[in-house]
Amino acid sequence: MTPHENAHEIFYRIWAWLDDNDKDTALELSILFSKMMLDNAGMIWGGRNTETGLTARDEFRKYWYEVKQEIEKL
């Protein structure tokens, strides 16, 4: 799933879950979720991607940073 697709998935799931259908709250919660994922990047272990040269942790951070940016565009 691309960061763009994941951002929309997170946002619309949270928005649908809210009783009051408040788009601003859904946006804030979606951004909070992506920040929490970024904060947990330190827990990721793994080797280095031979194509990108990035570690698994770096790829995780990059992906969730892009998701957060996509959410902020909504």
What does this structure look like?
This protein has one domain (3-73). With 74 residues, it is an all-alpha fold. It starts with a helix and ends with a helix. It has helices spanning 3-17, 23-39, 56-73. The radius of gyration is 14 Å and the shape is elongated. The longest helix is centred in the last third of the chain and has 18 residues, at 56-73. Helix 1 (3-17) packs across helix 3 (56-73) and helix 2 runs antiparallel to helix 3. 15% of the residues are buried.
Principal-axes shape call: elongated
Count of individual beta strands: 0
> What distance lies between the first and last C-alpha atoms, to the nearest angstrom?
18 Å
Sheet of most strands: none
Helix-strand category: mainly alpha
Mean pLDDT: 90
Quaternary structure classification: single chain
Helix content: 55-70%
Number of helical stretches of at least 4 residues: 3
As a percent range, the share of strand residues is under 5%
Radius of gyration: 14 Å
Q: Which spans have pLDDT < 50 for at least 5 consecutive residues? A: none
Total domain units: 1
Order of helices and strands: HHH
Question: What's the topology here?
Answer:
Layout: H1 3-17, H2 23-39, H3 56-73
Quick rundown:
This protein is mainly α. 68% of the residues lie in helices and 0% in strands. The mean pLDDT is 90.
Search tags:
single chain, 74 residues, mainly alpha, 68% helix, 0% strand, elongated
